[in-house]
Automatic annotation (TrEMBL):
Protein name: Cell division ATP-binding protein FtsE
Species, as recorded: Curtobacterium citri
The organism's place on the tree of life at top rank: Bacteria
Lineage of origin: Bacteria, Bacillati, Actinomycetota, Actinomycetes, Micrococcales
PROSITE patterns: ABC_TRANSPORTER_1, ABC_TRANSPORTER_2
Family: Belongs to the ABC transporter superfamily.
Keywords attached to this entry: ATP-binding, Cell cycle, Cell division, Cell membrane, Membrane, Nucleotide-binding
Membrane topology reported for the UniProt record: Peripheral membrane protein
InterPro entries assigned: AAA+_ATPase, ABC_transporter-like_ATP-bd, ABC_transporter-like_CS, ABC_transpr_LolD-like, Cell_div_FtsE, P-loop_NTPase
Length: 252
């Protein structure tokens, strides 16, 4: 479903690779947490899956397609198979809930009847059936994230990528979002979620891929957050005995 084969990503102006000779495979239907310290390469990994960035070396296959062979003309069609959710929701502020979710279907030319049915169904799935005409600013953070998830899955993508989807939410609201992502996964969608939320990862006990300096430090089938407890590094921000990059003052 997603296969990275010796992938290195070096950004211009940044000598140390964001991903360093990374190989891994994610299978259809899996629910995978991507964890690791800030700067370990999680968002870079997601951007490469979306073909928002190109690898400097190595091959990436997503849904049976070699991304290097995909022309830029075909990228929008390829992306229709992928839903994406971000920490900051990214809703269109001037459109109501229904229109935020409908928008992605309108731009790909779906009929009004199809859109009406699909949006109604997905708003039911995310628990917002009664709020179709609300504007984003009239919703709580958790509700806004539910709209963003509805928008991401309305076209029934094979893969849902989530970059810290609970990062702006309190624990109870986050638990509701995770229950929703689990339901979406049970419906057959492969879910790949980058997160710093230890309690969620510990509670769900799903596959955990831990990155460190762009390499896989740990790949566990049913794991917890478990990033090594590190001494507080005041001032340096890097080096410690494990070689894992740390943020000064942050205990993991
Ligand atoms: N556009 C860019 N240009 C240059 N360097 C970049 C760029 N994007 C990311 N990097 C660097 O690549 C490395 C990995 O960053 P990335 O954003 O993938 O990490 P992350 O694990 O998602 O971090 P966080 O948890 O803070 O979101 C970091 O050293 C970062 O500074």
């Amino acid at each position: 479903m997603i296969k990275f084969d010796q992938v290195t990503k070096v950004y211009s102006g940044n000598p140390s690779p964001a991903l360093d000779d990374l190989s891994l495979e994610i299978l259809k239907g899996e629910f995978v947490f991507l964890v690791g310290a800030s700067g370990s390469g999680k968002s870079s990994f997601l951007r490469l899956v979306l073909k928002e960035e190109k690898p400097s070396r190595g091959q990436i296959h997503v849904l049976g397609q070699r991304l290097g062979a995909l022309s830029s003309r075909k990228v929008p069609y390829f992306r229709r198979n992928l839903g994406v959710v971000f920490q900051d929701f990214r809703l269109l502020p001037n459109k109501n809930v229904f229109d935020n979710v409908a928008f992605s279907l309108q731009v790909i030319g779906k009929s009004k009847g199809f859109i009406s049915e699909a949006v109604t169904d997905v708003l039911k799935l995310v628990g917002l059936a009664g709020k179709a005409t609300r504007m984003p600013h009239e919703l709580s953070g958790g509700e806004q994230q539910r709209v963003a998830i509805a928008r991401a899955v309305v076209n029934k993508p094979a893969i849902l990528l989530a970059d810290e989807p609970t990062g702006n939410l309190d624990p109870t609201t986050s638990a509701g979002i995770m229950a929703l992502l689990e339901r979406i996964n049970q419906g057959g969608t492969t879910v790949l979620m980058a997160t710093h939320d230890a309690s969620i990862v510990n509670q769900m006990q799903r596959r955990v891929i831990e990155l460190s300096n762009g390499t896989v430090l740990r790949d566990e089938q049913s794991g917890g957050y478990q990033t090594q407890a590190l001494p507080i590094q005041r001032g340096s921000g890097v080096s410690n005995t494990t070689g894992i990059q740390t943020i000064p003052g942050l205990i993991r």
